[in-house]
Design goal:
Length: 174
């Protein structure tokens, strides 16, 4: 009938907040979220607090649904997390390696891609594992890292593209 699901439309609107959280570091809302809820922790793994707004809990609840739709195109490697952001074809490293592997790698949990890649130049068992992968590591350049929304060919987030990605499609009946 062409009637939009309010639930799916609301999800698309909430995902826009996450897009803004990653792409507009200068907004007052982003600064407030980082200082009050994230506090130098990564969004993808920060625990859900027991005392926070309903909206923040809902945004945290979207992580599994949306993480693989936010991919970083690596430029200088200074904006994205080495361990927790999706920038490598295999996905976020924290989903591939255990906490013990991360600790033994000597690469800090809050490392950017730049610092993580620099640490890989030092021989280690972790560097050896990554060296066996077919997918190459990115070459850093002078450009800024860029977050890409995989739900749209342009790579830019829109609520309409999120709605199209999330909605259940049913065949048209006559």
């Amino acid at each position: 009938m062409g009637i939009r699901s309010i639930r799916v439309s609301n999800l698309a609107a909430m995902i826009k907040h996450l897009w803004i959280l990653f792409t507009d570091k200068e907004s007052l809302w982003c600064k407030w979220i980082h200082s009050n809820f994230l506090k130098h922790k990564n969004f993808w793994i920060v625990p859900k607090p027991t005392s926070c707004s309903w909206a923040w809990k809902k945004l945290l609840g979207l992580r599994d649904l949306i993480q693989l739709q936010f991919r970083w195109n690596v430029g200088d490697g200074s904006s994205a997390s080495f361990w927790f952001d999706y920038w490598h074809p295999r996905g976020p490293f924290y989903k591939i390696f255990s906490n013990r592997d991360i600790y033994c790698s000597s690469i800090p949990r809050l490392a950017t891609i730049r610092t993580g890649l620099a640490a890989l130049t030092t021989p280690s068992s972790f560097a050896g594992v990554i060296a066996t992968w077919e997918e190459p590591l990115p070459n850093l350049n002078g450009e800024n890292d860029r977050l890409v929304w995989l739900g749209h060919p342009s790579g830019t987030y829109s609520s309409a593209s999120a709605w199209n990605l999330l909605r259940t499609r049913k065949p048209l009946s006559h």
